[in-house]
Give the backbone structure.
Amino acid sequence: MRPGEVEGGQGTLRFSFQDPPGGMTASQGLRGLEHFLILVQWLTFYVSLVLLLLLEFWPVCPAEGWVTSEYGYRRDPMTHRRKFHRGVDVANEAGTPVHSPWGGTVSTVARSRYGGRFVVVRSGPFKMTFLHLQTATVAKGDQVERGDQLGLMGSSGRATGPHVHLGMRLRGKTVNPSMALLRCRAPL
Ligand SMILES: [Zn+2]
């Protein structure tokens, strides 16, 4: 028997490893379609995986309300001096619930002259601070799920009215929380 031949029950089946002469044959066209379908399957798989990951980390909006002050330079509402505002202010009625955008660990619950009653939640490399609360409903060391309530909006500390100041740090560096909270989901 020569190489390329297979002994079968009904005789000898011959096949070739070489491309057939001429253009694309019908079987080659089918193989192309098969490869395309496999590619589509893989693409579907990866797109679903990315969507699942996005859904897993898609943030919940920390509070319902109106953005009264963006991240960046602004005229301080109390001293009227130009000052860098290291967070985003969301205002609403006192007592509006404040939620954690991601799951994490409550690393601080304290009170300060500037921030009033505040909570810090660590989520992976991020640390998110929630200032000027009326009350905190979590304690240091608590594990929170995405969307869990952290406290109620208030005007404790240096505040002109009830609002929550959202601050965000990435490995210790202040970042703009609007970037991460863009298109956040409504609290559950
Ligand atoms: Zn603020």
The CA atoms of residues 91 and 163 lie 4 Å apart. The longest helix spans residues 26-57. Residues 5-57 form one domain.
